[in-house]
């Protein structure tokens, strides 16, 4: 009997043979909601398959890190089954419980989005949530205009969701042709030449050590970041130190440069940015966080 259970389990996991027969077991309807906590932990960078429960346990400071006591393909005795139960409860479920506590805000946010929009996003990352919310709003606009009917809604969402557009090659020198940074130091002059000769994107770490100032500059898609040693800077009669921040920098760039293909979606994106400002001023944290996720996602 145990060998037959093991064989059935292998078939469900591999899904190689007689898949139609196994579908009712694999997709068995349950009353609970499944949530991909690994996806939350990875911050939406699509690396969930590379995360292991043991590594998460170590990161979270879990006191016990256990190895599976037997080979995965071993047929277990009654006594050995009890050992596996202990492994599952103390190790797997213990780490899972700790992880769920750490991700309470992420879970609550998605629960709130589900209530607000009806989109089952409990295991979606931020980009997918943003995509689905804006797509749903776009579809409702098409229905209001009479372009599609309510009966065509699901098919329209499905078709639009899988659209892909090919973009042209981006030559950085063409974008920066009217820009002259007037760099004085050779190290930055050479850097700018490399930037101009790049295609589609530019990414590089630059180590600068000048006049006892040691700076590591990281250039990438997200902008410029610096890592430098502890130093003190003081304003003088000739120089002023200014700290500034741009409110909703990337959303504003998306709006100002018309980076969203469809006018209706761009208009809704602008509305969400405005509504987020109001929600933030009113102290409505749920809406503030929800709108921020869409704007940045």
What is the strand and helix layout of this fold?
Layout: H1 2-14, H2 19-26, H3 37-41, H4 53-59, H5 78-102, H6 104-117, H7 126-145, H8 153-161, H9 172-175, H10 186-196, E1 204-210, E2 213-220, E3 223-228, H11 249-256, H12 263-282, H13 285-296
Antiparallel strand pairs: 1-2, 2-3
Helix pairs in contact: 4-5, 7-8, 7-12, 7-13, 12-13
How would you describe this structure to a colleague?
- With about 300 residues, this protein is mainly alpha-helical.
- The chain has 3 domains: about 1-105, no CATH class; about 105-165 and about 250-295, no CATH class; about 170-230, no CATH class.
- The chain has helices spanning about 1-15, 20-25, 35-40, 55-60, 80-100, 105-115, 125-145, 155-160, 170-175, 185-195, 250-255, 265-280, 285-295, and strands at about 205-210, 215-220, 225-230.
- A 3-stranded antiparallel beta sheet has the order 1-2-3, with no helix packed on it.
- The protein is extended.
